């Protein structure tokens, strides 16, 4: 463990493992660990490796063939599904990586069949049907077209049928979600009527697992947010919060500390002017790290267990904090932007709410400059 970092995100792998085991038990079916977008900012390979080797994770889900290839290059041997499919020219990456893929349009089938045939391999496909989110899933017509083409393919195996919920976190949309499940059941019948028996049937994301089990369980669930312990802002308020714990916290050390008189402007644009003699702490985290500029004059951090406000604009590399009221504040003290210090805490959900967004976006936005420190 490196003791000399000035800014870092801490990733608690034990909590990750506990969250995974709880999810596995709660779902009662295999869990696809969604590790797209750098494992929601937590770090693709360290997270996937730990989940595979320690938590015995069943499946991994990524958005792109490149993410899947990175998992394979890093030693992940469990099944991987590319939920975002591929663009023409990327079929070889899918075949080489032994990645399962979705097909967002019937026109991808022939390209995939050709690439698989060229390498004398059989590629696994999970079709996504659009039952209400309107995104990448196939319409009913596209599904039937795709099935017709798949019938002629000897190098593609239809292994899965999936759908994705639009609004499973909203109790007022419960009927809409039930409709999605009914549409999914119909699509499954059509697939079976066409002579296919997909081994995997999956619908639920975190919000679906939280509010719609067992109906939405299928025989596989695709979980991101809950795996990382993000449970506050994308789940139905109608059910008790699940017992998962946040995996990521975000910290930086006080790198500069000075006292300025009342009337002192601080930061770009002089958007903050001190109203009193103020102790100003400067910490090395800015929008270049994913601490978004919209936090300027709005956000908070914890220093010595006290919640302190940001002062002035967040700049690319540094942010200022008002530590006037923090007893014994000193150079090198840790400022926590996401996480806990003693009794005080700022959840990723709190941090995201300042920006009018959800915690998933906040952790995913952390850039490569922020070292991830893994604790296990
Ligand atoms: C990202 C994603 C998930 C996981 O969603 P969470 O809300 O993070 O659990 C599941 N399925 C699909 C298709 C996704 O894109």
UniProtKB/TrEMBL annotation:
SUPFAM superfamilies documented for this protein: Alanine racemase C-terminal domain-like, PLP-binding barrel
Enzyme's top EC category: isomerase
EC number: 5.1.1.1
UniProt entry tagged with the keyword Ribonucleoprotein: no
Keyword Isomerase found: yes
Cofactor names: pyridoxal 5'-phosphate
Reactions catalysed: L-alanine = D-alanine
Pathway: Amino-acid biosynthesis; D-alanine biosynthesis; D-alanine from L-alanine: step 1/1
GO-annotated molecular function: alanine racemase activity
Modified residues (N6-(pyridoxal phosphate)lysine): 36
Pfam families in UniProt: Ala_racemase_C (PF00842), Ala_racemase_N (PF01168)
Binding-site positions, substrate: 135, 316
InterPro entries per the UniProt record, alphabetical: Ala_racemase, Ala_racemase/Decarboxylase_C, Ala_racemase_C, Ala_racemase_N, PLP-binding_barrel
Alphabetically ordered keywords of this record: Isomerase, Pyridoxal phosphate
Domain Alanine racemase C-terminal: 247-375
List of catalytic residues: 36, 268
Family per similarity comment: Belongs to the alanine racemase family.
Purpose of the protein: Catalyzes the interconversion of L-alanine and D-alanine. May also act on other amino acids.
HAMAP family xref list: Ala_racemase
Designated name of the protein: Alanine racemase
Highest classification ranks of the organism: Bacteria, Pseudomonadati, Acidobacteriota, Terriglobia, Terriglobales
Gene (UniProt): alr
